[in-house]
Amino acid sequence: MKMNYNLNINIGLKIKELRIFKQLTQEELAYKVGYTSRSSINKLEKGLVNIPHSKIISLAEALDTNPSYLMGWTNNPSKDYVEPQRFNIPEQYRDVLVHFSGGADDLTQEDIDSVIDFIEFKKNKRKNKNRQRGACFMW
């Protein structure tokens, strides 16, 4: 319960900060997101209530920000901010992507899977070559 309360307070502070920056009253923001009174916004800003998922989206739109910023998942308040794509990368290959110029931001999961497949192919090819070298043939 305590952690949820702290999360609500952090979200509430961001809502209040953005509302003031946008020069909106609690009543104006309430109207924009579909609440009937300013007291609903007051409770959100104080962290007294849990915010439904649909309201996070409505609040982000009304405040020209993104839901990730309100939730505290990013420090970028731009409404055009898109959460970086999360990839399924096996632990032993994570360092490989650091060496791509510009990072892995412009790669798709399919690209990453292809790189991993190629690495596995090269490793197996080397293993097979080493096995052939070590093989002893009797004639």
Characterization of the model:
With 139 residues, the chain is an all-alpha fold. 60% of the residues lie in helices and 0% in strands. The chain has helices at 2-21, 26-33, 38-46, 53-62, 67-71, 94-98, 109-134.
Topology:
Blueprint: H1 2-21, H2 26-33, H3 38-46, H4 53-62, H5 67-71, H6 94-98, H7 109-134
Quaternary: single chain
SSE order in H/E notation? Answer: HHHHHHH
Q: What amount of the residues lies in strands? A: under 5%
The residue fraction in helices comes out at 55-70%
Count of helical stretches: 7
Could you write a compact summary of the structure shown?
Helix content is 60%, strand content 0%. It has 139 residues and is mainly α. Helix 1 packs across helix 3 and helix 2 packs across helix 3.
Characteristics:
mainly alpha; 0% strand; rod-shaped
